[in-house]
Design goal:
Blueprint: E1 9-13, E2 16-19, E3 22-25, H1 26-46, E4 53-54, H2 55-62, H3 67-76, E5 81-83, E6 86-88, H4 100-113, H5 120-127, H6 132-141, E7 145-149, E8 152-155, H7 156-170, H8 177-184, H9 188-200, E9 204-207, E10 210-213
Antiparallel strand pairs: 1-2, 2-3, 4-6, 5-6, 7-8, 9-10
């Protein structure tokens, strides 16, 4: 899992490294790095408004039994940069769409609502603009918002506060919707997608009916 505290690349002998539970030629890692760099350059050119390529897509592009470990190793080596559930080349930042005023107004609306911000569809009705999702993606790419789901964005401070709540509950025992509801006052309507986001983002891991915190470097 991305964000885990394991070391995915371990030197063994010249030209060979241990990647997860497999021995891999270091030349292969270099080839993958070059191929990924080329693919991401093309992705950024074609998708200038996107935060990056979905991690799941990149793993499929790489293919093979150690695709996950290869992506992890490139992130750890800072050859790639993780941005929520996407990866991008270091230094890339998506281009904003829409005027600065429009984006600021949307971000302010979402910030004010905290963890109960309206969905993309609800905001589109509010502002009378059907292409609002691209504005929100641009703000997310700039670090102002977090895409909890494709149709629901929250402010970065609000999400950071939720992660703090996860840590508070997780320090005492299993993380359950009930325990989080008691702490935050949120209903399951908001808690379930937030918990699923936390799993994808590597903050938590499902274990039975609850979740546990994932150690992060």
């Amino acid at each position: 899992m991305l964000g885990s505290n394991r070391s995915v690349v371990t030197p063994t002998s010249p030209g060979i490294v241990r990647l997860g539970n497999r021995l891999v030629a270091s030349d292969l890692i270099q080839q993958v790095k070059e191929g990924v760099t080329t693919r991401l350059k093309a992705w950024h050119k074609t998708n200038p408004f996107e935060t990056g390529m979905p991690i799941s897509t990149l793993r499929q592009v790489i293919g093979g039994p150690v695709a996950e470990e290869l992506v992890d190793s490139l992130i750890e080596a800072r050859a790639l940069e993780r941005a929520d559930a996407t990866v991008r080349l270091p230094g890339f930042r998506p281009r904003p769409r829409g005027s600065v005023t429009e984006v600021e107004r949307l971000v302010a609306r979402i910030e004010k609502a905290g963890l109960t911000a309206p969905t993309v569809a609800e905001l589109a009705v509010e502002v009378g603009r059907p292409d609002i999702a691209v504005l929100l993606k641009g703000a997310a790419g700039a670090g102002r918002l977090v895409a909890v789901t494709p149709d629901w964005f929250l402010s970065t401070p609000a999400v950071e506060g939720f992660v703090g709540s996860l840590q508070e509950v997780g320090a005492k025992g299993p993380i359950t919707p009930g325990a989080l509801r008691d702490l935050t006052g949120l209903s399951r309507k908001f808690l379930i997608p937030l918990l699923e986001w936390a799993d994808r983002a590597g903050h938590t891991r499902r274990e039975g009916e609850g979740r546990t915190l994932v150690s992060r470097p």
